[in-house]
Write a structure and sequence with these properties.
Helices cover about 40% and strands about 15% of the residues. With about 290 residues, it is of the alpha/beta class. The structure holds guanine (GUN). The site of guanine has 7 residues, from strand 4.
Length: about 290
């Protein structure tokens, strides 16, 4: 049995996100009062996956609520890689566009790597261009960094979670979350273990974690007896189980064991979008000299 002696804080990612968005909105309105144009994010959707369509609507709504422009480029699922690259290229050359996000996943015929590599690094608000990702790997300063990992780091900071010397375990090795969050935690002087589907005795590895990040998309993989008492538990996964959205962590099970836990709704998600807005504003500033 897990030891349940801990007061667990359920992270209010939405409240934290709203605080940051308020600051971003103030900054955008100051630029407007100086007669400058609004920052602009372009989102590209290839195909008609309903989840992706809903995600990009959420991103566009978030932009307009802080006074930013959002434009959308829709391509059919049958679009060729060349056609997607042409859209990216046009957005690269559109001076009124500050950030470009191509929603993933892409249809099989289109290489996510080739598309990311085609984005102007100055507009790479998803931080998936090899130069942006490489700068993080090499420990160089980056104005733009991966949105979900940035959101996770902001949550850890807000809750005073010490990274220095901590054991951090990351489940999942995706380009968009697992790899960049591991590098950011390492940069924060945590000792990082990256786990994945072939990791042996995942439960024992997780039990060592002072900071546990689950970003693998396996419903309720992390159970109460996987969690070290006092650990900070960050749940990034969202799976649809019979029409119900479920995270990678058994949140109820984490109660009384973890120091903090992010719920699968109103946890990391609102922070990811907020960091996309932050990146778009950073790209705007760098591009326009505002
Ligand atoms: N699909 C799910 N999450 C993301 C994201 O953060 N960026 C992109 N481009 N696609 C996604």
């Amino acid at each position: 049995m897990a030891d349940k002696a801990q007061q667990t804080i359920v992270v209010d990612g939405l409240a934290l996100a709203q605080d940051i968005r308020k600051q971003l909105a103030e900054e955008v309105s100051q630029y407007a009062s100086q007669g400058r144009r609004a920052p602009c994010l372009a989102v590209v959707l290839v195909g008609d996956d309903p989840a992706s369509a809903s995600y990009i609507k959420g991103k566009q709504r978030a932009c307009s609520r802080v006074g930013m422009e959002a434009i959308e480029k829709l391509l059919p699922a049958t679009a060729s890689e060349q056609e997607v690259l042409q859209v990216v290229n046009d957005l690269n050359h559109n001076d009124a566009v500050d950030g470009i996000l191509v929603q993933l996943p892409l249809p099989k015929a289109v290489s996510a790597y080739n598309v990311a590599a085609a984005i102007d690094p100055e507009k790479d608000v998803d931080a998936l261009h090899p130069t942006t990702a490489g700068r993080l790997l090499l420990g160089e300063a980056t104005e733009l960094a991966a949105c979900t990992p940035l959101g996770i780091m902001a949550i850890l900071k807000h809750h005073g979670i010490e990274q220095e010397g901590a054991n951090a375990v990351v489940i999942g090795r995706s380009n968009i979350v697992g790899k960049p969050v591991s590098l950011m935690l390492q940069r924060g002087n945590a000792t990082v273990t990256m786990c994945h589907s072939r990791t042996r005795d995942l439960q024992s590895v997780c039990r060592q974690a002072d900071i546990l990040v689950a970003a693998v998309g396996v419903p309720r993989l992390v159970q109460a007896d996987w969690i070290k008492p006092g650990a900070a538990v960050i749940d990034v996964g969202v799976s649809n189980v019979d029409g119900v959205l479920v995270g990678d962590v058994d949140t109820e099970g984490a109660m009384g064991i973890a120091s903090i836990v992010t719920p699968h709704r109103r946890g990391v998600g609102p922070m990811t979008i907020t960091m996309l807005l932050r990146n778009t504003l950073a790209a705007y500033r760098a591009r326009t000299g505002a």
